[in-house]
Amino acid sequence: MHDPDPADVERMRDVLRDRRWLVLTGAGVSTDSGIPDYRGPGAPARTPMTYQQFVSGPDAQQRYWARAHLGWRRMRSAEPNATHHRLAALEAEGRLSGLVTQNVDGLHRRAGHRGLIELHGRLDRVVCLDCGERTSRGRVQRRLDALNPGWERDAPVAPDGDVLLEETGGFVVATCERCGGRLKPDVVFFGENVRKETVEHCYRLTDAAEALVVLGSSLQVMSGLRFVRRARANGVPVVIVNRGATRGDDLADARVDAGCAETLSVLAPKPLQSRTFVS
Question: Domains in the chain and their CATH numbers?
Answer without folding.
Answer: 1-35+80-120+194-279 (3.40.50.1220), 45-77+122-187 (3.30.1600.10)
